[in-house]
Amino acid sequence: MPHLKRRKIFISHAWQYSEHYETMVRWLNGAPNFVWSNCSVPRTNPLGINTKSNLEIGITNQINPAQIVIILGGMYANHSDWIDYEISEAARLRKIIIGVRPWGQERVPLIVQNASDCELVGWNQMSIIRAVRGFL
């Protein structure tokens, strides 16, 4: 088996919609010939920080080693200060941003559309894997 490139990925998501995050992780883990490191902050493993400024530092520290930031483009992104922060930090740190259109959703928040470095990716495993491989 050839040596596979390990991709470092941060998945931006809203904890109240963690099923989207969990599906994304399952797809990335299950993709053939695809190795990745999860730089995200899942609901099951929070940073354990309770002030806004320290949480911002913690999120930045999670995004910093990532090569790619995947933004789940649910309409909840319009109402999440943390997703806004993650997008702005990813841009500031010059990370590749891939916006994902959730299944069955016609509209995606402008902040996600404008931040994405590629055309929005459809909500399926192979589209997302292709987009990641297209950059790395």
From TrEMBL:
A Pfam match: ThsB_TIR
InterPro entries: ThsB__TIR-like_domain (IPR015032), ThsB_TIR-like_sf (IPR036490)
Protein name: Nuclease
Ranges in coiled-coil conformation: none
Every Thoeris protein ThsB TIR-like domain range: 10-106
